Amino acid sequence: MSDQYEHYITRNIKAYYRRRLPAPILYLLLLLIVWHVFSLSALLMPGSLKNSATLESAYLEGTEYVRTTLEDLYFTGYTRTIFGRTAGYYYYTMRGDECIIVLLTPKTSEEGLPTIAEASFTGKITPGSGGFSQLLSGLAADLNWTEAGIRGKVSGYFLSEPGYNLPGNLLLFFVVFATGGYALACLVYFISCIFFPLLSPPCQDLALFGPPKKLLEQAENELATLPQLATEDMFITEHFFIQTSTYGNAIVPIQEIIWIYKYSTLHKFFWYHFSISYTLHISANRHLYIRCPKNIKSDIDGIMDYLSEANHRILVGFSESNRLKVQKIQGTPMHFGKIIAFLNRRI
User: Fold this and answer.
1) 3-state secondary structure of 64
2) How far apart are alpha carbons 342 and 271 in whole angstroms?
3) Cβ distance 194 to 18 under 8 Å?
4) pLDDT (tens digit, 9 = 90+) per residue, 10-60?
5) Fewer CB within 10 Å: C terminus or N terminus of the chain?
């Protein structure tokens, strides 16, 4: 028995998933950094605005998004428009000794009610900007006050309900949790396949033809004893075709293979042709399809010749007649053919 091929398939499956570990780990670390830098926890779970805190003091302490209930709000007569659409209505109210400006959505303000007895919402504390300064100037003119006088009475920060952007935040957190959950699931799955290679797809595909553990042990023993044909990453033993490449792993019983063909790919950059690589395509019973990419022509030709000799029922080469023969042998999975025919009749 050759030490070189001792547990060779299992070792390559483990190596394949070890190479895939950095991607989900790095992505999860990136999400953690983004979460911390942009304070997404505060966006996800806004705090409450303390009665003793002013908008300015709360903002300077790091509180940006808050849930609050305000009473006795009065419409200023001013609105915020975006692309000709009213995005919010400006109100003023008293919080203790502080007069604040509040920007409410059309829904909360019911399209600009003159007064609102009580409003509960989640908003963003925002420092006064150019638009806010124009609002104060307008209010000063309406009240026959000086701009300095109104700035002395009204907080330089305002509370914006549209600033919380609920639809955008929901989409943001959906993307964060969906992609983060997927990355975490991939990480757990990759680690599981490293410690338990039988959970990997190449081994689970063997369940189509028999007990995966038994067939894997048989393939390992045949490869370790004497591979009958070997290329850089493809092997043929007495009963199996085996692929162990950086692009994936596969184990297929030769007697289950029904069609093989090669496909060439021209690699070029603009007008300069670098090389041609070949991909071996294998179709087996139970709708199992294997691709072996980035190979050289001589290796694939040798594999195809040997497989066709080992199993004379294998169809060789890509052609419409071979495709139809394979479709007849395998049938259409999940009765897609009948469904399509039914839809065509309906149309």
Assistant:
1) coil
2) 47
3) yes
4) 999 999 999 999 999 999 999 999 999 988 888 888 888 887 788 989 888
5) C
What pairing do the DSSP bridges indicate for beta strands 98-104 and 288-295? unpaired
State the pairing for strand pair 115-127/65-82: antiparallel
Q: Is the pTM of this model over 0.70?
A: yes
**Position 76, amino acid:** T
DSSP 309: H
Torsion, CA 170, CA 174, CA 176, CA 178, rounded to 10: 170
Rounded CA-CA distance 196/193 in Å is 5
pLDDT for the residue numbered 273 = 66
Angle at 257 between CA 255 and CA 263, to 5 degrees: 150
Dihedral of the alpha carbons of 218, 220, 224, 227, in degrees to the nearest 10: 80
pLDDT band at 1 (very low <50, low <70, confident <90, very high): very low
Chain CA centroid to CA 88, Å: 34
Which value, to the nearest 10 degrees, does the dihedral of the CA atoms of residues 279, 284, 287, 290 take? -20
